[in-house]
């Protein structure tokens, strides 16, 4: 006898039934993987790697926390530093600082920001003009920074210094303390803009789509579901071939 499994009458209905079921079961995952795969294939054109996620729920799901901000009001401008040592001119990111922002003042038409290990000079538009660190003779770590009458001055844990704002010379002085600009609460609109920018830095849409494509966005269960869908697709391919071959064999016999 030359009968094989392909010729049994019970095989074809069974294959048809499970072929349809497998197709329906894999449908949602296949559509999801197809759409995300197409988008990932055009990452550069869509700028997915450069576009930050701003959705609060998604950022929270990834565990990206709200930053701790230190903010100072100078005239009508707000300066802030976050816990990544990034600096903001109102809501605009302008650079980084060495350790935490501790003060911001206006002097001689410029803004001066002090971090624990650095002093930064800014234009009225918030552009960085110059920066000073210990390499340039800046006394560190700075604990206070502000104005002493008409001069910039700072204090470390050991002593105080008057700063020449033109030549960047630091002269030790006794019995003087900087007039410090105290921290203040940011206006809500600026605070929310900084928080969105901060949280989005750690998460791009490319990362989200990659996790969605692989199922990792839903944890281990998501990965297993995508794996199961891949096996169902394999079954669909094999069962489809078998069904086609049965039909082809019938026509050939005729």
Question: Would you mind describing this structure in some detail?
Answer:
It comes from Dasania phycosphaerae. Pfam families: PepSY_TM. The protein is of the alpha+beta class. It folds into two domains: 5-51 and 204-253; 70-201, Methylamine Dehydrogenase, Chain H (7 Propeller). The protein is 39% helix and 25% strand. The chain has six helices and 13 strands. It has helices at residues 11-40, 43-46, 56-61, 188-201, 205-214, 219-253; strands at 70-74, 77-81, 86-89, 92-96, 101-107, 110-115, 118-122, 128-132, 144-148, 151-155, 160-164, 169-173, 179-180. Strands 12-11-10-9-13 form a five-stranded antiparallel sheet, with no helix packed on it. Strands 1-2-3-4 form a four-stranded antiparallel sheet, with no helix packed on it. A hairpin with a 2-residue loop joins strand 6 and strand 7 (118-122). Helix 1 (11-40) runs antiparallel to helix 5 (205-214) and helix 1 crosses helix 6 (219-253). The two termini are 20 Å apart. The model has no long low-confidence stretch (mean pLDDT 82).
């Amino acid at each position: 006898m030359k009968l094989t499994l392909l010729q049994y009458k019970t095989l074809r209905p069974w294959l048809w039934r499970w072929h349809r079921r497998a197709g329906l079961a894999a449908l949602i995952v296949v559509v999801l993987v197809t759409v995300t795969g197409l988008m990932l294939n055009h990452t550069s054109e869509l700028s997915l790697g450069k576009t930050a996620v701003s959705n609060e729920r998604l950022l929270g799901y990834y565990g990206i926390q709200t930053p701790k901000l230190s903010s100072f009001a100078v005239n009508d401008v707000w300066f802030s530093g976050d816990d990544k040592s990034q600096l903001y001119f109102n809501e605009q990111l302008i650079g980084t600082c060495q350790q935490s922002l501790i003060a911001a003042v206006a002097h001689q038409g410029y803004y001066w920001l002090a971090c624990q290990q650095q002093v930064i000079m800014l234009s009225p538009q918030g552009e960085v003009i110059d920066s000073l660190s210990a390499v340039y003779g800046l006394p560190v770590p700075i604990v206070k920074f502000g104005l002493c009458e008409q001069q910039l001055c700072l204090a470390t844990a050991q002593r105080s210094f008057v700063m020449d704002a033109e030549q960047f010379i630091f002269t030790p002085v006794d019995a003087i303390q900087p007039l410090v600009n105290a921290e203040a609460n940011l206006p809500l609109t600026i605070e929310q803009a900084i928080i969105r920018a901060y949280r989005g830095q750690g998460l791009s849409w490319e990362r989200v789509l990659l996790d969605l494509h692989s199922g990792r966005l839903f944890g281990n269960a998501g990965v297993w579901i995508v794996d199961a869908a891949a096996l169902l697709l394999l079954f669909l391919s094999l069962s489809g071939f078998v069904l086609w071959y049965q039909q082809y064999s019938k026509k050939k016999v005729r």
